[in-house]
Amino acid sequence: MNRTDRLYALVEELRAIAPRPRSARWLAGRFEVSARTVERDIGALQQSGVPIYAEPGRTGGYCLDKARTLPPVNLTPGEAVAMALALQGLEGTPFHVTAGAALRKLVAVMQADDACAAREPAGRVHLVRRDEDGPRVPRLVADALSAGRVLRISYGDREGAVTTREIEPLAYVGSPTHWYLVAWCRLRRGVRAFRTDRIGAVSVTAEVPDPRPLRREDLDIPQELVHQLTLG
Questions:
Q1: What are the residue ranges spanned by the domains of the chain?
Q2: What is the topology classification, in CATH, of domain 3-68?
Q3: Which range has the worst mean pLDDT, 33-47, 112-126, 188-202, 217-231?
Q4: DSSP 150
Q5: Labelling 169: which of 39, 91, 110, 143 has CA 20 to 30 A away?
Q6: What CATH number belongs to 139-225?
Q7: What is the distance, to the nearest Å, from the Cα of residue 19 to the centroid of all Cα atoms in its chain?
Q8: CB count in 10 Å sphere of residue 31
Q9: What pLDDT is recorded for position 186?
Q10: Could you give phi then psi for residue 180, rounded to 5 degrees?
Q11: What are the CA-CA distances from residue 14 to residues 19, 52, 70 (Å)?
């Protein structure tokens, strides 16, 4: 059994008995590898976002949180390649890192033969980086909404003047050329859109701001030019 198939099988083995644990020694015997190999495989799955945790004690082992993972996904190889290509398009957006994690989770829960079949056509797709591609969005900016904290940032305006501000993140706005973090700016006492490639140093404070509504008119964008993202 190759490593890709074994990773898939490990997840399904833990899913089948969840929430009960399986020890590294038991899993090593099941897949005819060493316990150290099992531990490395479990570590790789955890890093890719699979919700596996260790339960200590004599009867402990590795457990899978079934409530936070998916059963095998019946995507065709072509659909999987299309998803990978779509997620590649998030380069330079606040969702680039989480898109990579999402793709690894998707492949991990596909049928093993479909996942293998998808790798061949995926390897035939080549993407050319555009000269004008900008820098990646800083991770702390990408996590701004989910963190729900006040950020302290340095920001350079179009003339190059740099100011330090405390902001309350409210939303993202994406355009074909730039991404913006929309936030309540305490320095300017109003809603401002901060171009992500102009944000310098970023730190997350311990302060959780009170909820602040964001109105469509606060975006200062013609309503016919903007629409909200929906799932489904």
A1: 3-68, 77-122, 139-225
A2: Arc Repressor Mutant, subunit A (1.10.10)
A3: 217-231
A4: -
A5: 91
A6: 2.30.30.520
A7: 25
A8: 17
A9: 95
A10: -130, 140
A11: 8, 9, 12
Average pLDDT over residues 155-183: 90
Long-range contacts of 225-232 (CB under 8 A, 24+ apart): 226/173
Pick from 178, 184, 171, 172: nearest CA to 210:
184
Long-range interactions of 54-58: CB distance < 8 A, separation 24+: 55/21
User: How far from chain centre, in Å, is Cα 153?
Assistant: 22
> What are the tens digits of pLDDT across the range 105-130?
777 777 778 888 888 888 888 777 66
Tell me which amino acid residue 63 is: C
- Kindly report the pTM of this predicted structure: 0.60
Enter the tokens of residue 102. 């999402």
DSSP result, 32-74: TS-HHHHHHHHHHHHHTT--EEEE-STT-EEEE-GGGS---B-
∠ Cα 172 177 178 (to 5°): 35
Closest to 197 in 3D by CA, of 185, 221, 173, 181: 181
